[in-house]
């Protein structure tokens, strides 16, 4: 019993050292043989993610799809060559970038070398070669990973337009500079998908505060509507109100639902009351308000665009209010990173 307790303690320590992974080479240094690890796998306690790399089965199965993909990506990177770095969607999962939909089937790593060498694919992951200077190779979460700027450009060029704009907005919001993004883009200019990169980088907005806001802006851009201004201040009411999106030429405010969960919150009634007061004050200043959520902006963007067009048509002939500003009123300040964005755990590298 004492030996079993010691084994569990050692496994917990190994797991915490590698942030959710157990590596057989580390286990051997603790006197835990490969035979013991294989027995734990047979008993259903551990799950092999890559050669010599395991995870706690119950915790892995309870994780989200992107969290599981992040663990598999780190395992694939650990089991690979020393010069390999988790890249594109794998880097995004490890760094915690905001991602829509489901992850790819296989983790990916990038090794320095000519992109003309092509890709290789195994049952555990994919390997590709390309431009990867040392300063874009970060030691993060116990593995090597491409820098946040590099990962963002890869995701923008490989992913959907929605995914690209979301990651572009997030990159600027957390402090990655446009110059850093354009520098990576310039070095990858012969890669596939760079037209999408140019489109996103010319429209990304650091003021966007959530993936849902990015989706709302994309609907406007895609369906030929006026470009939405992100998070301006509405002034003139009982107190300044910072709204999610504004079509300034038409006096239409778009409010993105979904960033705050009301269920099981003791202050839910207060939140709802403040939201109602906020909307009433905005309407009293002669703005129209359209609320939308991810299901509408992502699943039915044409419907969102149609609602906006009808609202614009109904306002025809009415003067758009000009009581708004991109700068905070005296005594007020811009908030920090929007609550809808994941906390950038890589901030120390920026």
Automatic annotation (TrEMBL):
Annotated region (Disordered), positions in chain: 320-343
Domain of life assignment: Bacteria
A Pfam family this chain is assigned to: AbiEi_4
AbiEi antitoxin N-terminal domain: residues covered: 10-55
Annotated InterPro entries: AbiEi_N
Protein's UniProt name: AbiEi antitoxin N-terminal domain-containing protein
Organism: Nakamurella panacisegetis
Higher taxonomy: Bacteria, Bacillati, Actinomycetota, Actinomycetes, Nakamurellales
């Amino acid at each position: 019993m004492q030996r079993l307790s010691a084994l569990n303690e050692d496994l917990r320590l190994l797991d915490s050292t590698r942030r959710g992974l157990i590596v057989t080479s580390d286990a051997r240094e603790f006197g835990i043989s490969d035979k013991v690890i294989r027995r734990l796998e047979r008993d259903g306690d551990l799950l092999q993610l890559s050669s010599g790399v395991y995870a706690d089965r119950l915790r892995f199965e309870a994780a989200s799809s992107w969290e599981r993909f992040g663990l598999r990506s780190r395992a694939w990177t650990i089991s690979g060559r020393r010069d390999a770095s988790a890249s594109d969607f794998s880097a995004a999962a490890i760094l915690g970038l905001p991602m829509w939909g489901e992850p790819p089937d296989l983790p990916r790593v990038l090794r320095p070398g000519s992109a003309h060498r092509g890709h290789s694919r195994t049952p555990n992951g994919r390997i590709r070669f390309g431009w990867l200077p040392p300063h874009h190779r970060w030691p993060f979460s116990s593995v090597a990973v491409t820098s946040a700027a590099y990962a963002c450009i890869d995701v923008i060029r490989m992913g959907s337009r929605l995914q690209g704009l979301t990651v572009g907005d997030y990159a600027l919001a957390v402090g990655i500079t446009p110059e850093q993004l354009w520098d990576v883009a310039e070095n990858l200019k012969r890669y596939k998908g760079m037209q999408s990169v140019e489109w996103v980088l010319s429209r990304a907005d650091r003021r966007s505060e959530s993936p849902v806001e990015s989706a709302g802006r994309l609907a406007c851009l895609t369906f030929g509507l006026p470009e939405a201004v992100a998070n301006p201040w509405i002034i003139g009411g009982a107190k300044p109100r910072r709204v999610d999106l504004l079509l300034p030429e038409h006096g239409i405010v778009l409010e993105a639902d979904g960033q705050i969960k009301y269920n099981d919150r003791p202050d839910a009634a207060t939140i709802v009351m403040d939201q109602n007061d906020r909307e009433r004050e905005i309407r009293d200043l002669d703005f129209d308000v359209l609320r939308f959520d991810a299901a509408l902006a992502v699943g039915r963007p044409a419907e969102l665009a149609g609602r906006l067009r009808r609202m614009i048509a109904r306002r025809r002939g009415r003067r758009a209010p000009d009581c708004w500003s991109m700068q905070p009123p005296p005594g007020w300040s811009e908030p920090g990173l929007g609550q809808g964005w994941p906390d950038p755990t890589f901030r120390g590298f920026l």
